[in-house]
Structure formats: C-alpha cells, structure tokens
C-alpha cells in the first residue's frame, strides 16, 4: 500500500501544499468544493417532515466522488480537512456520508493557517465532526432555499423570467434603492464659510471663521457673511488663546473579512470578488523554493483575535526592525464586534518574518499588493500608538473669532508601517502652525468668503455597502462577495464610477418584495435571524425550530403575494427610428442586462441593436465615425468608433476631441488621484489635474 492515511481537503492547491508537510504515509486529495447539495431543479426541502433537506450528489462531480471512494477504500483512516468554518464543517459531513464514515470517529482536522507546524499540530488533535456547526450551515442553506425558491417563481410569473430574491441580496438591494431615493429627495441648502490666510513673521497659516461675540455663528446666506466682513476693519488679529495638547492615536485592529474587503477597495482598487480570490491563493499556498507555504491565515472570519505565538513573533520582529519603543509587546487588547463567531483568528500573515520584500519574488502583482496590505496592517496592530502634538489657536478682532487647528506627529509609532485608508480618499497630512502665544498679533493676508451647498448622501461603493451590512448584522463574512455579485448579475444594480446605481428592474423587484415580504427586507428581522443561526452553532437552539418560526408567517405572505400581485407589463418605449431590416418601428426593451433596441415586429423580425451613447467626439483614427461608450464582457466601460469593424479604434480612456500640441496624437482624459487629467496617448504631454 502506497499510503496509510487519506486526507481530503477542498482545493487542489491546498492539497499540494499539505501533502508536502505530511510525508509519504499520507495521500492528500481535493473534493473541489461541495460534493452534495440541494437539487437545482426543485425546492429540495420536505415541509411535511421537519424541513428535511433532500441532498443529491452535485452534477458533474461523479468522477470526483468515485475517485474519493476508491482512495478511501485503500486507506486505514480518512481525515477530513475542509475549511475551518460552518461551510467547511458541512462539506466534511457530506463527505463522511458519501464515504460511510462514522460521525463519532475523530477524523475532522482543522487549521487556521497552512504552515508545516500548524498542519502537523492539527493532525495530533483530530476531533469528531461538530454537528452543531453542520446544523447551523444546514439551517442557513434551507432558509435561503425556502426564500429564494418561493419568491423567485412569483417574480418570474408576475414580472419576467430569470429574476431572483434572497435574504441578504434583497436587503442589500433595498439599501441601495433607499439611498437612491434619499438622493432624489435631497434639497440642497445654502451655507457659507469664511476662510482666512494669516501670517506671523512671514510664516503663513490658515484659520476658519468660528463665531462672533463669544458665540458660534452659522452662515446661512450672503447677508450673514456681510455682517462678519463689515466687522473686520484691519489686518491685525489678537491671539487670545493657545491650547497645546498631546494626543495618542491607536492602530487599527487586524483584518476581518469585511475590513479587508473595504481596505482593499480603498487602497488597492480591488473589487470584493477579486480580494477574496487573491486571499484564497495566499491562504492555500504559494510555492517558495521547493515547498508551498500558506502565507496568511484563513480569510473568512469576523474575529480580531490573535494567537499568542503570533503576537510574540511580531513583538520580536518589531523590536529588532524598528526598536523597542515601537513594540506593544503583544499587550494590546482586541475586542470582537458583537455577534462575531471567534471560530478562528483575524486575517494575518502566517509568519511576520516573511516580509513583503522577501516574498515579492514569489508573488504576482495582485498577490504582492494584498499580502503587503495584510502584513502591514497586522504588524501595525502590534505596535505602539502614534503620539501627535496638537495646537488650537483662537484669533480675535472686534469679537470676530477665527480658529486655527494644527497637528504634527511627535512619535510615529504604528504609523511608521501603516495608516488606515479613508472612504473619501483623502490623505492625512501634518498641519504645522507657527509658534504662537497668547498676546501675539498676527496679520490677515486675505479673508475669503465661500458659498457652499449641502450635498446629498453618496451612493454606496462596494466597501461602504459591506460596512453597512456588517454594522446592521446582516450576512456573514462568506456572504458579502457573492451577494454583491448576484445583484449585479441580475441587473438589479450597476456600478457607475464605482458606485451602486439601481436599475429600473431592480426598483420593480424591490417594490414588490417590500410590499409583500416586509420581513425579508427588514434589517432587524434578518439580524435576529442571523443571531438565531449563531445560537444553533452554539448548541443552544434546534435548527428545525428556527426554520419553523420563520416559515409560519412567511407562508401567509406567499399566499397573499400570489393572490394580490398583478402581472407587471414592462412597456416598450419608442426608439424614434425604423428597423433597417424590415422597416417596422424600433422600440427600447428592458432585458436581463439592461435596455437595448429591438424591432417591434418580433418574433417575425429578430433585429436588435445595443444602445450606445455618443460622447460628442469624432473618431481620432478614421476621422469619420463618432466615439461612443461601450461595455466589455466584464461590464467595464471603454470607448470605440461607430464604424466598427471597419475602424478598430478602442480606448479605455475617454478621448477629449483635441490633439496633442507636441506630437499631434489625440488627447484622453485619465482618472488620477484628486480628479481628472488630460494627457497625450504617447505620454509626453499632460495638463493640470481638474479636481
């Protein structure tokens, strides 16, 4: 016999990494994800028999299952080493069923990182399959199946085929549409600010108007500004108060799944799906020399807990690399968010000693970016706080009060390694004020009133939507990426300038679910349901009772919806021109992927055309066609010529209709930090950034 023990993991990459650690007595194979699931063609849940799920082998997995059974027969013992979460536990349970393994046998092996020490330690302490974890996953799967397979057919019959509904996706869609309604209803309000540039001994600094006569004053209109400026009669301002303080700033906690997805979006411009795909690669193993090593811990977690051994290693590294004063010596306490599972650790490098600089030669570009982010965040989380010197100066003339705030970093602490990103994209900078004291006199260089209008709330980005879902207790680490993917694939929403915008179809679906299935889109109800599922995992609740409490009211809502929802006709709009095939009028139809032109003589004539948007620029290559917006297969915006395929001009950047004054090639508009910039395609000319 070539091997004594069979180990089953989920992915081939993980199998290769682990087999090298375990030696010749072990054979490691992959199940390639799930092997059994509910059938796609029907509900697969027995409502008359305590919601018993009817599992079948997944289509296309026959050869994999056959191979696993054959390998298991040759082994003295089978170990199940699928991922360390609910879903991984369920996969292990399904494998045990297919292979006829005893559920009481200690054959379940879990590890939070794929390193030699962690894997070998895990195999020394195998356990039985945790049936509470399995039940929690089973409850979630059955619940999602009941919701999806009950509401979706109603949407197909009443609206159009191909639509779907789900617990988390319906709430995500509602959040996007509610935000869009806020934007539509928003009425801008005027307000003003008065900014002053001041100087002392030619050292300039800025201060902002605060108030008059010792009271804070709002500036709602030009008249209120005039009252302020008329009171200012000269250039001299008295320094009436100087407050100097020392402020500590603590580092961000190490990454959870959600915070990693958000920060990768802010700093690396990664979509959620891409972040998880690259993180999976780093977790499962990267070839370093002759062996493969998992570079990070498991990437689906809502815990910020760190193993003591990892803290000790980080403390030693920080002391050696940056100095003792930078190390928190592993003493920094972390507190998990309410409802966090704490099944495993935060996302961190499996070894702090594997620095990004050393790993760069083994990683591709995206892996390097994400590994650097995870490594830096973790190391910074184990460092001492930064210390900032802050200064607040009050200026006064005729009881008109301006305030200047300044700060500078006194001790970098964790900021030497990493600073958390911001949703507004702005970077924090030192604002150093001159050395001022009470009784000093400073001169105003200019006083500048500015008119402003309040802005509507911003549309959700992937990062801000994930954060809002998490803050409301909706979904779990493994659900965010597929949820965002689903609402885009169904064309309920689209990403416009990296922000979610609902489609007409999305608004129709949302209005029906809100009216007829209010609990499905009730944030508190869904958060409570997540809490119930957690109780199942902890062994405090039976999964059947959780489903039963939900299904009673839901069944009544289904009956009402079937009776009261009327067939919705999505009317075609006239396109304003005739079909170039048969001469009948063309119309604008709403399809699964958005609007398009179609012949009104369908099905006799099947002529269709995409709706293209001209940008008012003549093609810079053929000088005949017009440049139009197009979408790639991955839904990315690019620009092309209307004469395609006769003219093959394409560009990811928007042509501006002008030629380069240096070389005569065409100019394009690029998005850069802080705004947009017009540049030459040859790269030897650029204009100032437009904010």
Written description of the protein model:
With 691 residues, the chain is an alpha+beta fold. It has five domains: 5-129, 3-Layer(aba) Sandwich (Rossmann fold), CATH 3.40.50; 140-185 and 458-564, Topoisomerase I, domain 2; 198-250 and 389-453, Topoisomerase I, domain 3 (Distorted Sandwich); 257-381, Topoisomerase I, domain 4; 571-611, no CATH class. It contains 17 helices and 29 strands. Strand 25 (637-641) and strand 26 form a beta hairpin. Helix 5 (131-158) runs parallel beside helix 17. The model is unreliable at 337-342 (pLDDT under 50).
Envelope shape: globular
Q: For this structure, what is the CATH homologous superfamily of the largest domain?
A: Topoisomerase I, domain 2
Count of DSSP E strands? 29
Number of domains: 5
Q: Report the radius of gyration as a whole number of Å.
A: 31 Å
Major sheet strand order: 8-9-15-14-11-16
Strand proportion = 15-25%
Q: What does the largest sheet look like? A: 6 strands, antiparallel, barrel
How many helices does DSSP assign? Answer: 17
Query: What is the CATH architecture descriptor of the largest domain?
Result: Orthogonal Bundle
């Amino acid at each position: 016999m070539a091997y004594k023990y069979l180990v089953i993991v989920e992915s081939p990459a993980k199998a290769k990494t682990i087999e090298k650690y375990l030696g010749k007595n072990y054979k490691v194979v992959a199940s390639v994800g799930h092997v059994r699931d509910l059938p796609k063609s029907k509900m697969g849940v027995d409502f008359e028999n305590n919601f018993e799920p009817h599992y079948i082998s997944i289509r296309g997995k026959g050869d994999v299952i056959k191979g696993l059974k054959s390998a298991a027969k040759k082994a003295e013992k089978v170990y199940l080493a699928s991922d360390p979460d609910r879903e991984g536990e369920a996969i292990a349970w399904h494998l045990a069923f297919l292979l006829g393994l005893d559920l009481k046998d200690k054959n379940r092996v879990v590890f939070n990182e794929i390193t030699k020490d962690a894997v070998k330690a895990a195999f020394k302490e195998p356990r039985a399959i945790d049936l509470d974890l399995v039940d929690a996953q089973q409850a979630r799967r059955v619940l999602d199946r009941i919701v999806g397979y009950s509401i979706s057919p109603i949407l197909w019959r009443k609206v159009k085929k191909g639509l779907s509904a789900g617990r988390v996706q319906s709430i995500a869609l509602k959040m996007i549409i509610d935000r869009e309604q806020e934007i539509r209803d928003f009425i801008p309000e005027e307000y003003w600010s008065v900014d002053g540039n001041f100087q002392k001994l030619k050292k300039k600094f800025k201060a902002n108007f605060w108030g008059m006569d010792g009271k804070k004053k709002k500036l709602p209109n030009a008249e209120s500004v005039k009252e302020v400026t008329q009171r200012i009669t000269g250039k001299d301002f008295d320094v009436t108060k100087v407050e100097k303080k020392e402020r500590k700033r603590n580092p961000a906690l190490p990454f959870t799944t959600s915070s990693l997805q958000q920060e990768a979006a802010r700093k690396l411009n990664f979509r959620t799906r891409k972040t998880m795909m690259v993180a999976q690669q780093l977790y499962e193993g990267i070839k370093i020399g002759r062996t493969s090593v998992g570079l990070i811990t498991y990437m689906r977690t809502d815990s910020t807990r760190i193993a003591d051994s990892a803290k000790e290693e980080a403390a030693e590294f920080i002391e050696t690399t940056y100095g003792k004063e930078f190390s928190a010596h592993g003493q920094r306490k972390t507190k998990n968010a309410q409802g966090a599972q704490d099944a495993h650790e935060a996302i961190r490098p499996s070894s702090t000693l594997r620095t990004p600089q050393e790993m760069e030669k083994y990683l591709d570009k995206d892996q390097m970016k994400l590994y650097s982010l995870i490594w830096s965040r973790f190391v910074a989380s184990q460092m001492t706080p930064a210390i900032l010197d802050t200064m607040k100066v009050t200026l006064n003339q005729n009881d008109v009060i301006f305030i200047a705030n300044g700060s500078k970093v006194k001790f970098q602490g964790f900021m030497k390694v990493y600073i958390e990103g911001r949703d507004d994209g702005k970077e924090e900078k030192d604002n150093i004020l001159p050395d001022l004291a009470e009784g000093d006199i400073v001169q105003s260089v200019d006083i500048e009133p500015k008119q402003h209008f309040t802005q509507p709330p911003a549309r959700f980005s992937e990062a801000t939507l994930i954060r809002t879902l998490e803050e409301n207790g909706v979904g779990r680490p493994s659900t965010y990426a597929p949820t965002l993917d689903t609402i885009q694939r169904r064309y309920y929403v689209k990403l416009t300038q990296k922000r979610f915008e609902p489609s007409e179809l999305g608004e129709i679906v949302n209005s029906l679910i809100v009216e007829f299935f209010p609990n499905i889109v009730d944030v508190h109800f869904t958060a409570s349901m997540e809490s119930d599922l957690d109780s199942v995992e902890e062994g405090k609740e039976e999964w059947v009772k959780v489903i039963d409490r939900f299904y009673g009211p839901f069944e009544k809502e289904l009956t009402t919806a079937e009776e009261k929802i009327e067939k919705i006709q999505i009317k075609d709009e006239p396109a304003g021109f005739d079909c170039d095939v048969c001469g009948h009028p063309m119309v604008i139809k709403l399809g699964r992927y958005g609007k398009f032109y179609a012949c009104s003589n369908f099905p006799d004539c099947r002529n269709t055309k995409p709706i293209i948007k001209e940008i008012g620029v003549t093609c810079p290559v053929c000088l005949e066609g017009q440049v139009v917006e197009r979408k790639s297969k991955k839904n990315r915006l690019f620009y092309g010529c209307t004469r395609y395929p006769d003219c093959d001009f394409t560009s990811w950047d928007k042509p501006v209709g002008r030629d380069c004054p240096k070389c005569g090639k065409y100019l394009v508009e690029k998005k850069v930090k802080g705004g947009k910039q017009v540049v030459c395609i040859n790269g030897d000319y650029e204009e100032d950034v437009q904010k």
